[in-house]
Amino acid sequence: MTLTQALITAQPQLSKTVERPRLEVELLLAYYLGVDRMYLFTHGDEVLGDAVGYEALVARRAKHEPLEYITGRVSFYDIELFIAPGALIPRPETEILVEKTADIIRQNRLKQIAEIGIGSGAVSIVLARMFPQLRIVASDISEEALAIARKNIKAFGLADRIALHHTSLLDGIEAPIEMIVSNPPYIARDVELEPNVQDFEPHTALFADGEGDALLKKIISLSAERGVWYVACEMGYDQRERISAFVKELGVYSVDFYTDLAGLDRGFVLEELEIRR
Ligand SMILES: C[S@@+](CC[C@H](N)C(=O)[O-])C[C@H]1O[C@@H](n2cnc3c(N)ncnc32)[C@H](O)[C@@H]1O
Fold first, then answer.
1. pTM score, two decimals?
2. Percent helix, percent strand, percent coil in the chain, to nearest 5
3. Per-residue pLDDT tens for 25-77?
4. Whose CA is closest to atom 18 on ligand 1?
5. Which of 14, 82, 85, 265 gives a 20 to 30 Å CA spacing to 227?
6. Following DSSP, what letter does each residue of 103-130 receive, concatenated?
7. How many helices (H) and strands (E) does the chain have?
8. Which residue's CA is the nearest one to ligand 1's atom 4?
9. Cα-atom radius of gyration of the chain, to the nearest Å?
10. Ligand 1 centroid from CA 241, angstroms
11. Residue 121 is part of a domain; what is its CATH number?
């Protein structure tokens, strides 16, 4: 079987599971051979000696396993990261959270921020690369996620600027914090997700109590208690009203909501009112 034939044969197996089966079989074959996708187009007549391993990868993907967990790599913002099932696969919409956070860091020359729920490390690593003076303290309740973050942070040479804490929220973290950034779990527990998410990604990264907003509210309260000036969080498309009411009740922040590329509410930035006076 040639490489071209291997692609043609595998494609129908993914047609029910994925949106772009042709692209994904190409990515899987390229990964299997340790080459880039372009190689497949220029070496289409080459014989695929051992097809068994490649077919096994296609079979995993046909059962909804995310491509990123199979290949162990994910692109985020301007970097590529190691990823494994212990951590959420960073999503393109979280790049907006990075940009909102970066705007505030830049405008206010912040030096020390915290990330709650670092996961793979995507957000903190991109921010640390953007701002060479920035220090980040980051937490996660998942040891597996922290191990993945640690590996990525080391790969980018940032271990001296991103400190990891195995803790909930900011418990036990005493460092002064000018801003909190977080993409916390924000999906209500009774929501049924697509199989590639529901069956493969860590539920501690996805689901939260209440209507999914329990942790978001805890982060907001915590920032008020600790006198943190700025907070940027990702949230669910249907959480704006509840978050807005909660912030108003607290009375210490102004709030700006932002939308994602689909025009859905996706997050907010809080600014402590005191610092405006
Ligand atoms: C939606 S994922 C985000 C991961 C990463 N920041 C990103 O944007 O790709 C949420 C992360 O928060 C962590 N988490 C859940 N509850 C937490 C808590 N109480 N304190 C700290 N981290 C928590 C999860 O383990 C998970 O890694």
1. 0.96
2. 45, 20, 35
3. 999 999 999 999 999 999 999 999 889 999 999 999 999 999 999 999 999 99
4. 168
5. 265
6. HHHHHHT--EEEEES-TTSHHHHHHHHH
7. 12, 11
8. 119
9. 21
10. 23
11. 3.40.50.150
Which among 88, 115, 162, 203 is the best mutation to test ligand 1's pocket, defined by most ligand atoms within 8 Å of the CB?
A: 88
CA-CA-CA-CA dihedral for 130, 112, 151, 214, to nearest 10:
-110
Angle at 95 between CA 263 and CA 158, to 5 degrees: 170
Q: Which domain holds residue 251?
A: 86-276
The number of domains in the chain is 2
- The DSSP call for residue 88 is P
pLDDT of residue 277 exceeding 70, the answer is: no
Same domain, 110 and 237: yes
Q: Tell me the CA distances in angstroms from 68 to 82, 164, 196, 254, one per residue in order.
A: 9, 24, 11, 38
Q: Which residues surround ligand 1 with Cβ inside 6 Å?
A: 87-88, 90, 94, 116-120, 122-123, 139-142, 145, 168-169, 183-185, 204-205, 215
Structure tokens, 130: 């953007």
**116 CA from centroid of ligand 1 (Å):** 7
Q: Which residues contact 247 (CB under 8 A, 6 or more apart)?
A: 220, 253, 255, 268, 270
Q: At what angle do helices 3-14 and 21-33 cross, to 10 degrees?
A: 130
One-letter amino acid at 85 equals: P
